[in-house]
Amino acid sequence: MIDPVATQHIMAAAIAGALIILFGAVYALLFALSRLQQRPGLMLWAYTAYAILIGAVWVLSTTLNLTGFWQVIAAVMVIGYFVAPRLIWHLCAGTHVSEAHTG
Predict the structure, then answer these.
(1) C-alpha radius of gyration, the chain, whole number
(2) d(CA 38, CA 63)
(3) CA pair distance 23, 33, nearest whole angstrom
(4) What are the tens digits of pLDDT across the range 16-34?
């Protein structure tokens, strides 16, 4: 049986969902800028944004009473947000290296 979500938790869940999207984008942006400009200080800010994202996922899963399978989905989402910018960076860097050698 699914536990109902308290009405006062709906706004917290909506804000947490927005923060997940916002700080996921901020993490990816700062990660890319750190690599592009070779500034390690930006990577610290990227990890800070990622930590806020993790906190927002925790708030979302707590306020919506997510358990079992849904907690696994949330964990996979958090891992995906961490790994995706790295994979995209390697894909883009590899693509541009091959273009530089052919042109």
Answers:
(1) 17
(2) 39
(3) 15
(4) 999 999 999 999 999 999 9
User: How far, in Å, are 18, 19, 31, 81 from residue 22 at the CA level?
Assistant: 6, 5, 14, 12
CB of 31 closer than 8 Å to CB of 44: no
* Res 1: pLDDT: 52
DSSP structural state of residue 57: H
pTM of the model: 0.82
Closest CA to 44 of 26, 57, 25, 58: 26
Measured distance CA(30)–CA(35) in Å, rounded? 9
- Tell me the three-class secondary structure of 23-51, residue by residue: HHHHHHHHHHHHHHHCCHHHHHHHHHHHH
Q: Which of 91, 93, 79 is nearest to 38 (CA)?
A: 93
Task: Report how far residue 3's alpha carbon sits from residue 30's, in angstroms, rounded to the nearest whole number.
Answer: 38
87 CA to centre of own chain = 13
